Amino acid sequence: MLLDNLRAMAVFVAVVRHGSFSGAAKELNITTSAVSQQIRSLENELGAVLLQRSTRRVSLTEVGELFYQSALKMVTAAEMGWHQASRLRDDVMGNLTIATTPQVACQYLMPALSDWLAQNESLSLHFMVRGEEFDMTHDRVDICVGFVDAKEVSEHDKNDVLLTYVPQLLLASGDYLDRHAPIHSIDDLAEQDFILLDGNRTITFATGETVDIKRKSRLSTNSSKIALKLAMSHQGIIKVNALDAKPFIQSDELKNVLAGHELPPLALVARLPDKEFQPTKVQRCLDILVKHFANLE
């Protein structure tokens, strides 16, 4: 009933604006009889006559004049709301929230998006650190950038956009390697000290070979940043993605362990909330990120 009344109010405002039923019908792309029916329904609902009809023109009654002021405010507010929602959908403006890790945000996303952000002053970018429990809809996250098993990536999943494949590496400091037994084969890893990232005690190689860490790990974390710092302080070996480790390898603070034995890569994915339409700002951001990571390869 409320929706019907709101529709009838919009028709009523159009009739007053044009001074005729036919003018309103032309603007709204409906028939003159449909306009007449809407006005009649509105008057019946209010129990009052809103318009005086004549053969040439319609005019407002006293009640109609009073009602018109409120109806006009309603229609104007609705049109403004529609316009603002359309702008937010179609323009690069408003808030854009990206959930990711601190390392990915600082080393890759911000450099990739800085020029685009400078060109769009009506856009605000918010980086949110990913938590263990995460709800994109509830937390109003537009894009979630993170690592997943490469096997989980599907070309048919419209909510996941592949940015790049990232190698996984086994790393340790030179001091740790000098002070411990030499590592010549996969089997030699079993007795080494490991810094566990996300509690995984099994290492699987690209060949399918696996090794279980036998020694009890005294250090563990769910943060690759902390794991890297621990490795640089000579506490053990870590398995970490190459993006996070890149600056420490380049500075020679960490060295590859068993470089000739590859680990399965991870996929860096931009995940979108499950909804039918994505705003233009999200699509533009994704285009820039895909191009940026393609240029890094």
From TrEMBL:
The keyword Ubl conjugation does not apply. It comes from the Bacteria. GO terms for biological process: DNA-templated transcription. GO terms for molecular function: DNA-binding transcription factor activity; sequence-specific DNA binding. Belongs to the LysR transcriptional regulatory family. PROSITE patterns: HTH_LYSR (PS50931). Gene3D superfamilies: 3.40.190.290, Winged helix-like DNA-binding domain superfamily/Winged helix DNA-binding domain. Keywords: DNA-binding, Transcription, Transcription regulation. SUPFAM superfamilies: Periplasmic binding protein-like II, Winged helix' DNA-binding domain. InterPro entries: LysR-type_TF_proteobact-type (IPR058163), LysR_HTH_N (IPR000847), LysR_subst-bd (IPR005119), WH-like_DNA-bd_sf (IPR036388), WH_DNA-bd_sf (IPR036390). This is Cyn operon transcriptional activator. It holds the Pfam family LysR_substrate. The keyword DNA-binding applies. Transmembrane segments: none annotated. Residues 4-61 form the HTH lysR-type domain.
